Amino acid sequence: MKYIVGIGGMTNGGKTTLTNNLLKALPNCCVIHQDDFFKPQDQIAVGEDGFKQWDVLESLDMEAMLSTVQAWVSSPRKFARAHGVSVRLDASDTHILILEGFLLYSYKPLVDLYSRRYFLTVPYEECKWRRSRRSYAVPDPPGLFDGHVWPMYQKYKREMEANGVEVVYLDGMKSREELFHQVLEDIQNSLLNRS
C-alpha cells in the first residue's frame, strides 16, 4: 500500500520538526521537502511590494517536485534505497511518503495525490516571533514578514479553503510531542482502516 501524507502550513509553524519525528516513527517512510525545490535566487522576481517573491508558488520548481513524487509512486522501494531509507519487509508492504512544505496544497497536480493532508497554524505574533529567531541563507530584509510573508500565507490559505481542499488543521501552539502523537495516531488509524 502507498500512502502520501502532506505536512503543510505556515512558515515556522513546526512542519519540519513534525515531519522529522514522523520519519523516525513510521516504517518504510520517505520525505520530500518543498524547500528543496526553490528556484535559484536570480530567478525569484521582485514584486510590487518591493520584496523578492520567495513565498509564492512561482518561486518553486513544482514540476520537478511532482516528478520526484511520481518517482516514489512508481517504485517506493527503489526511491527509498536511492534516498538511504532502509525498507522493512515486516511492514506489510506499506510505503509512506511525507511531503513537507508551505504551499503543498496550492499546486493542483499534487492536491489529489495525498492520502491525508495536515495544515499547521500558529497565531500571527507567534509566527512573526519564530521567524525572527530563524537564520536563513538569504536573511529577511526589514519589513518582509508583514509586507510579504504573512500576506502571502493568508492569500494561499484562503485559496486552499476556497478550492475546497480538505485538511486536518493542527494547532502549532501545542507541544511537539502532543502534535507528533496526534498525527502519528491519526496516520496509524487511517492505515488500519485502509488495510
Automatic annotation (TrEMBL):
UniProt pathway annotation: Cofactor biosynthesis; NAD(+) biosynthesis
InterPro entries for the chain: P-loop_NTPase
Gene3D superfamilies, per the entry: P-loop containing nucleotide triphosphate hydrolases (3.40.50.300)
Catalytic activity: beta-nicotinamide D-riboside + ATP = beta-nicotinamide D-ribonucleotide + ADP + H(+); beta-D-ribosylnicotinate + ATP = nicotinate beta-D-ribonucleotide + ADP + H(+)
GO BP annotations listed: NAD+ biosynthetic process via the salvage pathway; NADP+ biosynthetic process; negative regulation of myoblast differentiation; nicotinamide riboside metabolic process
Keywords: ATP-binding, Kinase, Magnesium, Metal-binding, Nucleotide-binding, Pyridine nucleotide biosynthesis, Transferase
Endpoints of the signal sequence: none
Protein name: Nicotinamide riboside kinase 2
The organism's taxonomic lineage, starting at the top: Eukaryota, Metazoa, Chordata, Craniata, Vertebrata
Gene transcribed to yield this protein: NMRK2
